[in-house]
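Please produce the structure of this protein holding magnesium ion.
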Amino acid sequence: RQAQYRALVAVDPVTKDGKQINLQMNAGLLVDLPHLAESGALGIGLFRTELQFMIASTMPKAEEQEGFYRSVLKQAAGRPVTFRTLDIGGDKVVPYFRGTDEENPALGWRAVRLSLDRPGLLRTQLRAMLRAAAGGELRLMVPMVTEVAELREVRGLLQKEIERQSKIGEQLPKKLQFGAMLEVPALLWQLDELMTEVDFVSVGSNDLFQFTMAVDRGNARVSDRFDILGRPFLRVLRDIVRAGERHATPVTLCGEMAGKPISAMALLGLGFRSVSMSATALGPVKAMLLSLEADKLGVVMEEALNDTRPVRSVRQILTDFAAENG
Ligand code: PEP
Ligand code: MG
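Below is the modeled complex.
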């Protein structure tokens, strides 16, 4: 098996019917970087910047952040890296940064909410990213967005940092791509505004599933109760793909489901052409997609999701499809 996956590293991720898939990996620390070349990932679709903060004993200084992003980009050697701005709070605890005790941390003061309330922290990070990517491409995305207005606020701060850098004569990134993570259900009713506001969208299916189904992602007793391949959640994902197509805004999915062959199959059937997963998942997912006819599966998925009195679960339908189509 391992040898079989190793043989696929240099193989282009293209489905049997010729659909090019942007297979990327998730990362958060420098130790992850060697996996980029080893796994054959085309880029880093999610770089969790909070990990540098979580393993430190004090707040990383501006220069440390910049140096870190610089090393990441250097080691990525031209493959695109999508940095996510700080996603602390909720399940991501930074010991030296204590908010108030919260009864519902998942719904609390976290991620972009915290960043907008502590703009100094966010501006330091944005400046570090701008400087590290000077002369190259900077891709950044914002976690836990609830209202499109929050994105405009972050963009405003980014603009201030860009102006500051150019005023003092610093080189800027040649290309800037600004994106949002879609992981809060409220954004589903702002899809048209969202898709026109950003350069790309990345679905955080771990949190989106948690908030859509009202199940704590860390509590197996309830999170295993509902199938991520159940019709309700897949219909949500279908709406997101369609909105992306309407506006020609690229949509990626970077949650854990992208790394399981059967759910990755569901994503391709829904029309996702870009996914990001843990490095170890790349081999099995690539092996799956090389043997897949995406359009044929698309028809099957569409039928499965339109079925209001289903006999088989979507998971079963996908399993049967895989068995019948090699
Ligand atoms: C997600 O929520 O799906 C996601 C990719 O982000 P994280 O797991 O870091 O919350
Ligand atoms: Mg998340």
